[in-house]
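FIELD: query
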Amino acid sequence: MEKVTLNVSGMSCGHCVNAIEGNVAKLAGVNEVKVHLETGKVDVAFDHDKITLEKIKDTIDDQGYDVE
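FIELD: result
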């Protein structure tokens, strides 16, 4: 299990939280995702044997947010 904290810009409300948490949580291999709206951070715990960090970043990007 790998845990990362991503810097994500463009998040501003509860809809942003739900969009990111909902879509990332659906990915096979993701065990946990938590958005910290006030700090612009997203914590993700995932199995790197089942999913890549790039796929997680792409999923967040697809929701309209910028991952640094």
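FIELD: remark
The mean pLDDT is 96.
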